[in-house]
Specification:
With 303 residues, the protein is of the alpha/beta class. The protein is built from 12 helices and 8 strands. It has 2 domains: 56 residues, no CATH class; 228 residues, Rossmann fold, CATH 3.40.50. It is globular and about 75 Å long.
Length: 303
């Protein structure tokens, strides 16, 4: 049997199932006489009677073409975010009627968040014992940065998944339906096993005991198995103002209030999950106005 290169599983993942050349295997055989080539016997596809050809297995053309799109689709990156990368994350915004000192503070917060996430992606998986929790108001680019990191990581060959918090819970709930083709473990296993999981907008749905237990199971399992998670949330910690010498969030962002005790991240995900997130993730707070509201450049949005 012709031996395939060591990354055969990767090529298979990227192959088209209906490819007429490789039949979904991801590799094609070419004639070559260089060192390492192997004989193709007559009883193998493409073989002929007589002197055997010397051949080499190379990735099939179907694994190359639209590879980026297929990798991002496999990682469940939504279409609307596939343009997001570090290069188009804006950190020098101009907003009318905002004092220069305040505007500079906003842009420093954006630039610092970009630096942290970009370094995280560049160094993954080396030194990434902890994930990231991107925390801040709507429209400051949390999802943009999370997707930029995920894209860079999966395009290097690592496994990764993007899930909206509410969508994940809904898919798990739907799997309980007797008519559903999916099973709970069918939904959960990729989430638990992916090298990096982006869980977007955590805490966005009202907490229920089932939701908290389910999300707690996902995060605890990934933590115990040393798998990295990158999460985003619009909810802040009530302790930010109580325990910080820095200006309160309301002073950092016009119109942004400090969270009430019943509207904090802890209240949205529970004390146990919030405590686990302190262990799992480095918290990155982003304080800036809503980009979508304040800056109306056509075709350029953040989440």
């Amino acid at each position: 049997m012709l031996a395939l290169p060591s990354r055969s599983a990767y090529a298979c993942d990227m192959a088209r199932a209906n490819c007429p050349t490789c039949q979904g295997g991801g590799w094609k055989v070419v004639e070559r006489t260089t060192q390492g080539a192997q004989p193709l016997s007559a009883d193998k596809p493409g073989g002929a009677a007589g002197e055997p050809k010397m051949v080499w297995a190379i990735p099939c053309d179907c694994t190359v073409g639209d590879r980026t799109e297929r990798v991002l689709a496999k990682a469940r990156v939504p279409e609307r975010y596939r343009h997001c990368d570090f290069a188009n994350y804006e950190t020098d915004n101009e907003i009318e009627n905002v004092p220069r000192a305040q505007l500079d503070a906003f842009n420093r917060s954006l630039a610092q968040a970009k630096l942290v996430v970009e370094r995280f992606a560049a160094e993954f998986p080396v030194g990434n014992e902890h994930g990231l929790l991107l925390m801040g108001p709507c429209g400051v680019g949390k999802t943009h940065l999370a997707v930029a990191a995920l894209k860079e990581i999966v395009l290097r060959g690592h496994s990764g998944l993007f899930y909206d918090y509410r969508e994940l819970l809904k898919e798990i709930q739907d799997s309980y339906n007797a008519e559903s083709q999916a099973t709970e473990m069918g939904v959960l296993e990729p989430v638990l096993k992916a090298e990096i999981l982006v869980l977007d907008d955590i805490g966005s749905s009202k907490p229920s005991l089932w939701a908290l237990e389910t999300v707690g199971h996902v995060l605890n399992t990934r933590y115990n198995e040393k798998r990295v998670s990158l999460l985003t949330t619009n909810f802040l910690d009530a302790e930010v103002t109580a325990n910080s010498a820095a200006p309160a969030p309301a002073a950092r962002v016009a119109g942004m209030r400090a969270p009430a005790l019943d509207d904090s991240l802890t209240e949205r995900v529970g004390k146990r999950i919030r405590s686990r997130l302190y262990e799992m993730c480095r918290t990155v707070e982003i304080f800036a106005p809503d980009y979508r509201k304040e800056i109306r450049h056509a075709g350029r949005f953040r989440s």
